[in-house]
Write a structure and sequence with these properties.
Radius of gyration: 20 Å
Strand order of the largest sheet: 6-7-8-9-11-10
CATH topology of the largest domain: inorganic pyrophosphatase (n-terminal core)
Number of strands: 11
Bound molecules: manganese (II) ion
Distance between the termini: 57 Å
Structural class: alpha/beta
Length: 308
């Protein structure tokens, strides 16, 4: 069975890819961001003539549906099985597409846990102590529990460097090393202090606005190395809270809230994610996001009033 794996590059994606690697012995593993999925799917079909392609921890983008349709059709013609496993919310249009290709695409989407957990259960290796450690790390990172110092180290190192370090991390995970010496050394020597400086710097430049009774904190032009959860957490620890947090990167933005479903807005702007932590890829129009935030939650309050 020739297998290709395409997985997200964060801790959950790496843990998922490592479990898939240990169970399926793939001929190729790619780490990717959500928008790169069609590109790697095409590469897998054209260059690796696989029997199956596993995609993990990457939600199909509604904005890329025509590319996806073409590629799934190609896989169907070539008899390639696509096995897609994820814990992000998928757009309705994606299900409509996939349901036309029942023979080709098998999928499992469950937002109640992390993808690594779903992969481990699928392959019935959830009881394996090492796999359990990988899944625990993924849960700690993805649900932003931050119980382990190791989670914070990995998260920062993975964002600080580029693809070569992410693949090196994957190789360590596949090799049974969850806390390799090289990563800890890199973190202490090159990442820790500079990362904490970036957080402090971003906190110093935040804007606080209020619109329609909704308090919004905007972190402008944040270095992509800074994790949006860590940044909002740092603000809260400094006693600065808001209803909605917007972290704006050179390309894309992260929306976060402790109680509002920000994925509603992210979806309308071509992104997605989780209810309290969602992202929008590409060029960002910040005033449009603010408009939508004010509009969406105002509307929701009105609806509630009518219902009550
Ligand atoms: Mn992920």
């Amino acid at each position: 069975m020739r297998t290709v794996v395409i997985s997200h590059w964060d801790l959950d994606g790496l843990a998922s890819a490592a479990i898939l690697a240990l169970r399926t012995a793939p001929v190729k593993i790619w780490l990717a961001s959500v928008t790169a999925v069609p590109r790697y799917l095409r590469k897998a079909l054209e260059e690796y003539s696989p029997d199956q392609i596993w995609i993990s921890d990457l939600n199909p983008q509604a904005s890329q549906i025509s590319d996806l349709r073409m590629l799934i059709k190609q896989a169907s013609i070539e008899g390639v099985k696509i096995r897609w496993i994820d814990h992000h919310e998928w757009d309705r249009s994606i299900y409509d597409l996939i349901h036309q290709y029942d023979e080709t695409v098998w999928y499992l989407v469950d937002p109640s846990t992390v993808t690594a957990d779903l992969v481990a259960r699928k392959f019935r290796v959830r009881d394996n102590p090492y796999i359990n450690d990988l899944v625990s790390l993924a849960i700690d990172d993805d649900f932003f529990l931050n119980r382990y110092d190791l989670t914070i180290r990995w998260r920062r190192v993975l964002r600080w460097y580029s693809w070569n370090i992410r693949y090196k991390a994957l190789n360590s995970f596949i090799g049974g090393e969850i806390s390799p010496y090289w990563m800890n050394k890199l973190y202490e020597d090159e990442v820790k202090n500079l990362y904490e400086n970036l957080i402090r710097e971003a906190l110093g430049r935040m804007d606080i606005i209020e619109k329609n009774g909704i308090k919004i904190i905007i972190f402008q032009d944040v270095d992509p190395k800074v994790h949006p959860g860590e940044l909002t957490d740092a603000a809260k620890k400094n006693g600065v809270t808001a209803d909605i947090y917007i972290v704006r990167y050179p390309r894309g933005a992260s929306l976060r809230s402790d109680y509002y479903d920000v994925s509603l807005i992210a979806k309308k702007l071509g992104g997605g994610g989780h209810p309290y932590a969602a992202g929008i890829p590409g060029k960002i129009n910040i005033s449009k996001i603010i408009e939508m935030v004010a509009h969406t939650y105002k509307q929701r309050m009105t609806t509630n009033t009518i219902v009550i």
